[in-house]
Write a structure and sequence with these properties.
heterodimer, A: alpha/beta, four-stranded mixed beta sheet, 13 strands, 40% helix, globular, B: alpha+beta, Nonspecific Lipid-transfer Protein, Chain A, five-stranded mixed beta sheet, binds pyridoxal-5'-phosphate
Chain lengths: 415, 272
């Protein structure tokens, strides 16, 4: 186990001046305390370094935002150059026009782009535009899908406000056509939109790809109801298909939200929409002090180019495929039902025999002890900065980690 | 922000009354365990009594054992000798918070008034033990843990929490500090607390790993850590980071219980 004394010292100081020390999804309790760092100081390519000097091969990638690697000069060069000239100016920088043009040309079916900061800004704006346009109120979403931290979609525990703001959100189990049909039937004439992630990536659970029937049903139900179909691609964007993950799964949304990997970690997200919604979007008062800052837009333009240069989605699938194959093989060899779910570029490991996540926690702790940062409860990400050598070292560590679990669990070792 | 009793809706008033009664009874029980003098002051047969609150559902009972009672007499000794009846939730909340209010002691058999006397002494002793810096950590931890867990049980069914409880997975959580052990069973809208967790079955997944694992395991590093967290001196999320609390297993279940815990402290902050 590594030394995390500097991390812990910062945490103790933080606890005095910051609610919870570290709040939200980065709270230490969401990882395995004692095995993971709390504070990181830098990243380089596919590696991260903590405040105690420990180094990890990183499979969280800034929760997906790192797609071409930490400190990639092709992105940081132009971004830092603009930072020196001024980031947040009174009026937008021309990079905004260029980026909107690039994205409209790239993302299939989308004719306009609105830039915001966080993914939550984009999903909230998308549902608001759908409500304004239809004059209807109900939002339909999948159980366990994460669309951000705003009150309409958050899992905050304060019913005082979440009850009020989630009163018009209806849930159904992802991929369940009959349940989706039932929701649409129950709320006929009242549904503004259906919001779905391109595939299901719930926390704590195996990931699920959509069935073609599910996507067809979603589109048909939206069409019949006169509701807008939103694909929330904040987490998956650019890792499955640069034209949008909806293309990868054969879906035809009216609105698409993109964030995280959009600018390799620079703060920017985008809501894109089809021609049919341009007028309503134009009538919205859309603003935020930092929403038009120049640096992230320049970083995004550079990221788009760098992604292609580094091999794009084909390369991500290749690296992710190696990782998936190796993890499942070594897991099986150690006697576990280790299963990697989701697309290869956004994998998540679970154990068939342990829905309670003990094995996830113990495995990821053992990996962290060996210098590999894999989240026990949140899906992982491959970046274009990962190398075959990273994957090989990861698998070597995994082989040991699985073996280390065996005597603790009574799993049969089958070589 | 402080909430006043009069601002609560009827359901909340009832839930608070049940919560106060539960805490009073459980703390009296723990004070009995902790304090030999208190035990001596009670009837040699032990104490069995009930609290009822008008309109707030079935009554809640206290049953502290009397080792000395010969086996044939045990069943009788365990029959409640007293029902302490509060005609309204407000009366219960007031009296059980130490304020003036209306309560009716209903004798059910002999020994009723000695039981009432014991209950009063035990309640104030429990409060003293919690306040006194000289109380041994083990005793304080026991009192706080019982109050917290049975407090969760008392409020879990309320409708305010229902939406939250719906998205929390069902299952068992073992809560442990040193050699104190409870198992908390979350099932739909209900939470049940049982002592001595090892005796209770766990899930298939738990069995696969270690036969005694619950769906989730929550343990405090020591009594001191338990006291700090359970008394509210240290936030649970911070204690997790500093290693004073450890959670393994089905995290969303434990996180869901933390949400109920927040609601519990909201109730305990209600002013009269
Ligand atoms: C699918 C999805 N939508 C929305 C969001 C919210 O994005 P942000 O955290 O940038 O507000 C996330 C973040 O994880 C996400 O994964």
């Amino acid at each position: 186990m590594s030394d995390f004394s500097a991390s812990k010292a910062y945490f103790e100081r933080a606890a005095k001046v910051i609610p919870g020390g570290i709040y939200g999804s980065k709270s230490p309790g969401f990882l395995v305390p004692g095995h993971f760092p709390y504070y990181l100081s830098r990243g380089a390519g596919s590696h991260i370094f903590d405040v105690d000097g420990n180094e990890f091969i990183d499979y969280l990638c800034g929760y997906g935002s790192q797609i071409v690697g930490y400190g990639n000069p092709a992105v940081d060069g132009p971004a830092l150059e603009q930072a020196r000239k001024g980031d947040l100016l009174n009026q937008p920088h021309p990079a905004m026009v260029e980026l909107a043009e690039r994205l409209v040309a790239l993302v299939e079916g989308m004719n306009w782009a609105v830039f915001v900061k966080n993914g939550t800004d984009a999903t909230t704006l998308a549902t608001s535009i759908a409500r304004a346009d239809t004059g209807k109120q109900i939002i339909v979403a999948a159980d366990g899908a994460y669309h951000g931290a705003a009150n309409w979609c958050s899992t905050n525990v304060f019913p005082v406000f979440t009850h009020a703001e989630q009163r018009d959100v209806r849930f159904f189990p992802y991929n369940d056509v009959a349940a989706l049909e039932a929701r649409f039937a129950e709320e006929r004439g009242k549904i503004a939109c259906l919001i779905l992630t391109p595939y299901h990536h719930p926390t704590y659970k195996p990931q699920q790809l959509p069935t073609p029937e599910f996507i067809q049903a979603a589109e048909r139900l939206c069409r019949d109801e006169g509701a807008w179909f939103i694909i929330d691609d904040i987490r998956a964007n650019f890792r499955l298909d640069a034209r949008g993950s909806h293309v990868y799964f054969g879906a035809h949304p009216d609105l698409v939200t993109i964030g995280k990997a959009l600018a390799n970690g620079y703060p920017i997200s985008v809501l894109m929409g089809s021609e049919k919604l341009r007028k309503t979007a134009s009538s919205f008062f859309i603003t935020g002090t930092y929403w038009m800052s120049a640096v992230p837009m320049i970083a995004s333009l550079a990221t788009l180019g760098e992604m292609e240069r580094m091999g794009g989605t084909a390369r991500l699938a290749q690296l992710g495929g190696m990782l998936r194959e190796g993890l499942e093989r070594f897991g099986r060899e150690a006697g576990f039902g280790a299963r990697v779910s989701g697309p290869s570029a956004i994998p998540y490991l679970t154990f068939d025999e342990d829905p309670n996540l003990y094995l996830n926690q113990r495995f990821c702790a053992a990996m962290a002890d060996r210098g590999v940062f894999m989240h026990p409860h949140h899906n992982w990400f491959i970046s274009l900065a990962h190398t075959e050598d990273d994957i090989a070292r990861t698998l070597e560590a995994a082989r040991e980690a699985f073996r280390e679990l065996v005597p603790k669990t009574g799993a049969r070792h089958v070589q | 922000m402080k909430v006043h009793f009069a601002q609560l809706n009827q359901e909340e008033q009832r839930v608070l009354a049940r919560l106060k009664a539960t805490l009073a009874l459980r703390l009296a029980e723990k004070a009995w365990d902790a304090d030999p003098a208190l035990r001596q002051s009670a009837s040699a047969r032990g104490v069995a009594m009930k609290i009822g609150v008008g309109g707030a559902g079935s009554s809640m009972s206290l049953d502290v054992p009397a080792e000395a009672v010969p086996e044939p007499e045990k069943a009788r000794a365990r029959r409640p000798s007293l029902k302490l009846y509060f005609p309204s939730a407000e009366a219960a909340v007031k009296v059980l918070s130490g304020a003036k209010g209306f309560a009716i002691p209903l004798p059910l058999r002999g020994g009723a008034f000695s039981a009432l006397g014991f209950f009063k002494r035990a309640s104030s002793r429990a409060t003293e033990l919690l306040r006194d810096p000289a109380t041994p950590a083990e005793i304080k931890a026991k009192l706080l843990l019982a109050a917290t867990l049975f407090g969760l049980q008392a409020i879990a069914g309320e409708s305010y929490l229902a939406r939250r409880m719906r998205i929390v997975p069902d299952g068992t959580v073992r809560v442990r500090v040193e050699d104190i052990e409870y198992i908390v069973i979350k099932n739909g809208n209900s939470i049940k607390v049982q002592k001595n967790a090892s005796a209770h079955a766990t899930t298939s997944a738990g069995n696969f790993l270690e036969p005694t694992l619950a769906d989730a395991e929550l343990s405090f590093a020591d009594y001191r850590s338990a006291i700090e967290v359970l008394s509210g001196a240290r936030q649970a999320v911070v204690a997790l980071g500093s290693g004073q609390v450890r959670i393994e297993g089905l995290l969303p279940l434990v996180q869901g219980l933390f949400a109920v815990l927040d609601r519990l402290s909201w109730y305990l902050g209600v002013e009269l």
